[in-house]
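Is this the right way to post structure tokens for a design question? Let me know if I should format differently. Anyway, here goes:
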């Protein structure tokens, strides 16, 4: 869950804070189009999540409601729409050469900026790179994020990119 305040609930400010931590971690200036896309992706995620949960935009979600909304998105086949804008913005942010995917070097640089150890980052990258081409594209990244939100397993690559293991 994205409960940055530690109060047992997720609200818009938690989602916005996570986006800002990412921007701060990679040193992206506030006024850039990439920073705007990250914030807009987070806002779109929150809006869709609250719609699925049946909660007003200004409300908050406890863990049960949060998980239920994600499960509903998965059942409806819309979870990709839920996380897609945020994932695209995240990949675009750390894709410094603009080729549409994230290399190991770009990934290591971004994860290091966010405080993750290199060994953990290398582990995550190897699992994110599903086709073994040395690049993580938006579809591979999105699969990890969806897995983070919907799989009950441990040691998932999404754990690292979502900031669970550090």
């Amino acid at each position: 869950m994205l409960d940055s305040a530690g109060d047992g609930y997720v609200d818009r400010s938690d989602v916005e804070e996570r986006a800002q931590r990412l921007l701060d971690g990679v040193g992206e200036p506030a006024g850039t189009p990439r920073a705007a896309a990250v914030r807009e992706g987070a806002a779109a995620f929150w809006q869709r999540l609250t719609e699925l949960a049946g909660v007003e935009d200004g409300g908050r979600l406890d863990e049960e409601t949060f998980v239920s909304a994600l499960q509903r998105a998965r059942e409806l086949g819309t979870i990709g729409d839920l996380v897609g804008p945020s994932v695209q913005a995240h990949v675009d942010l750390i894709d410094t050469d603009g080729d549409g995917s994230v290399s190991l070097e770009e990934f290591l640089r971004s994860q290091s900026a966010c405080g993750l150890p290199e060994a953990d980052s290398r582990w995550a990258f190897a699992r994110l790179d599903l086709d073994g081409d040395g690049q993580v594209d938006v579809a591979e990244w999105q699969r990890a994020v969806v897995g983070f939100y919907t799989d009950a397993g441990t040691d998932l690559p999404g754990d690292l990119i979502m900031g669970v293991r550090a």
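Format looks fine. Someone answered above. Worth noting: The radius of gyration is 15 Å. The first helix runs from residue 12 to 26.
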